[in-house]
Write the structure tokens for this entry.
Amino acid sequence: MKENDKTIARLIRAPYINREYSWLNFNLRVLDQAMDLTNPLLERAKFLSIFKSNLDEFTMVRLGSLENSNINEPDERENKTELTASEQIESLLMLYPELYRKADHVFNFLNTELYHKGINIIKGKDLSVKQREKCLEYFNSYMLARISPLVLDQKHPLIRFWNLRTYMVLLLERNGREMFGVVSLSPSIERIYQIPGGKKKHLILAEELLYTFGDLAFPGYKVKSKALMRVTRNADFEANMEEADIDYNFDFSKFIKTKVEERTNLSPVRVEINSSESTIINYIAKQIKIKKNHIFTSESYFDFKFLFLLKDFLEKEKAEELLYKNFTPYFDPALKENSICEYVKKKDIFLSYPYDSMDVLIKLLNEAAEAKDVVSIKITIYRLTDHSRVIEPLLKAAENGKDVTALMELCARFDEENNLYYANRLRDAGCTVFYGLGDYKVHSKIVSITKVNGRKISYITHIGTGNYNESTSRQYTDLNIITANQEIGEDGARFFRNLAIQNLENDYKRLLVAPKGLKSALIAEIEKETEKKEEGLIRAKFNSLTDKDMIDKLIEASKAGVKIELVIRGICCLLPKIESVTENISVTSIVGRFLEHSRIYSFGRGEDQRLYISSADLMTRNTSRRIEIACPILDQEVKEKINSLLSLILSDNVKARRLSSDGKYYKIENITESIDSQDRCLKEKRSNI
């Protein structure tokens, strides 16, 4: 058995799969798209970049979290595969070298194709004499003054390697004495330099220029060996309310700001290096106190974000041929031409991003900001885009004397600073801003608009599966409803009151709200289908499945004969198709042009069907440690649209991969017509425009 096969065997304990291994499997499905010839070339290049960025974040957050657990709770075992944090770290790190080999292989494959399309990404060692002269001139005139060389000795202690910044480390000699030199590649230096001359676009990266000519920063020294390297630091921190109360005078925003600033200085969890030179590797390992099994060699580049920039070096028409065809999200003329507030009185509004436009929601917020009968607007905010159009109507509503409340989640990882900025803007405008409830992260997506006519109070409620973010609304598949249903409206208003007074009790008529009511309600729905045995049906679509209680309930239902069809994009800790255990469960993952992000939970058939959309995945963090919402779909027309969408997704045989009982994902054999569910949705919306 190969070493990696032994490692994988440790990470699977049927019917369970280790969470972290399952995530690495998901990221390999992302990498698959970089080799999928049905995708345009520059889009395939982007998938390689996303794969590497995903791995960076996984290393910072998930490996970082395991490192923390190994320090704080070394004997605790993960509840599905019974591995300690140390055992998980060791096993996962053994899988990393193969990930780097695959990424390097994919880049070389793409680079060959790019060459034939007129782009030549060149290494320093492959420069021609003339190209080398031009690069040297550029380095001397532009880069040399912007780098900071340092010789490390007793008077120059080791510098602090910043998280995810590229450095060159050199073994130097002068007067018979060896020492080390370090040069940091400033982030202000443009990543790509186009070498003048030739029909093709000859491009070289800044780190290659540093590696090729960086010796010049150390005149008088002999360079014996050198290497580029990059450190990845632990980015997982706990945002504990008690700590904030004690140390930050009850100001959670100041606490988060400090934690974000500390992130770049946390302990190292990985080193990447472009050389196998043992002297330099040993020196780095010793100086930053990292074990050698955390050091990995990359033959191409540490990150591939520069691939997103390649279109700028091509003529517009040529670049467009190598990218996805642009599309305009659909804005129903009936909603564009009429008042949203009036329209929703007659029927619920259903929006499916990115195929439908988020402008519908923006229009609703603008109407509410100006409407005389609207007295309050309340919203949960998890992630916003820069220059968000969601914020402006909230500011306008406050200016118009309406009660505006924003529940701002400051612990949205890597978006903390952006959320702090918007929280301050809203507060300065007179809006009420608070940061959630105790140590529970608020992940719900809800807008509650209250209207008063005389003594009659009515509501318009928006509930979605994704963030109020214009950028991701064009990249992620998410579902939304806007409803004037009174019971849902009352639940929405009650939700904001409860969070304002830190009340977690489950006193809702229609909404399922975590952490108290969502999990128990979904388990009850599974149990109801389990009682039906072979007549039972569960269909669901979400991003991750890790909650063991939910997994075990699904296994019980499968054993009873219930048909269970799951579409899980990312992590799945349940092993399907095990005879007599999970044989009635199918698990499909779709990775395509858009990030599959919607959450749908369906139980039963026909008139007995109970259908929900939700902000929550079936992860322990979502069901037990977050404020989440699932909303029932009551409008029959909307229910039919979601059922049709779910059936389409389950029939995908182009971008879909099916999880097998061996823990691997396989491409679905196409024996009839090819069905790309995302492409079908796009074509359907285009036909309406």
User: Anything to note?
Assistant: Residues 239-252, 259-264 have pLDDT under 50 and may be disordered. DSSP finds 21 helices and 29 strands in the chain. The longest strand covers residues 222-233.
